[in-house]
Design a protein that fits this description.
This protein is α/β, with parallel strands linked by helices. It contains seven helices and nine strands, in the order βββαββαβαααβαβαβ. Part of the ABC transporter FtsEX involved in cellular division. Important for assembly or stability of the septal ring.
Length: about 210
């Protein structure tokens, strides 16, 4: 499903974050990207979803070279993905329900379908009773779970999760990982970037370790 061929990425400051990286991820895998802060985990996920472009090399998604697609096509690419980043923005003047609805509204889903999917997504992250709350009324943990609900509501083919258990206690963290595993059983490819190997130790076989890119 995803293939990196000699991919490198550096920023204006000159630091090379990703260096000549080669790897592949098959459909329906659960893959852990492990590494210390600054090792390139977040940049790797941003390259997959087109938030960043590599300086060199090729990235393939479902057989298509996404390093060659136009910027106007990137939004169509992302509709196939659920994306969870620690700094995911939420609309503070909108309710939980309205925030989670955004991916469905963009794709033109019916009102009936939107209601059904939002209820299911919020139930999965234990926030169904918070649907009418405004974001400002939520704790950091609840805000993070809203981001997770928004990422899964559109039934993506691949889920990119950068530190998805951040701000969550062990009980909630394990429930979120079980949710990802449930999605994986239905064929969703899961890519989790984390430094918290204690939480996932022994659960998953496929681990990519990043060291200085």
């Amino acid at each position: 499903m995803i293939c990196f061929q000699q991919v490198s990425k550096s920023y204006l400051i000159g630091r090379q974050v990703i260096q000549s990286m080669n790897f592949h991820i098959r459909s329906s895998e659960i893959v852990i990207i492990n590494g210390n802060s600054g090792s390139g985990k977040s940049t790797l996920l941003k390259l997959i979803c087109g938030l960043e472009r590599p300086n060199s090399g090729d990235i393939f998604f479902c057989g298509k070279n996404i390093t060659q697609i136009k910027h106007s096509e990137v939004s169509l690419l992302r509709r196939q993905m659920g994306i969870i980043f620690p700094d995911n923005p939420l609309l503070l003047n909108r309710t939980v329900y309205e925030n989670v609805a955004i991916p469905l509204v963009i794709t033109g889903a019916s009102i009936k379908n939107i209601r059904r999917r939002i209820s299911a997504a919020l139930d999965k992250v234990s926030l169904l009773d918070k649907a009418d709350n405004f974001i400002m009324q939520l704790s950091n943990s609840e805000k993070h779970r809203v981001c997770i609900a928004r990422a899964i509501v559109n039934k993506p083919v691949v889920l990119l999760a950068d530190e998805p258990t951040r701000n969550l206690d062990d009980v909630l963290s394990n429930s979120i990982l079980r949710l990802f595993e449930e999605f994986n059983r239905f064929g969703v490819t899961i890519i989790i970037a984390t430094h918290n190997m204690k939480l996932i130790s022994g659960k998953y076989d496929r681990i990519i370790n990043l060291q200085q890119g």
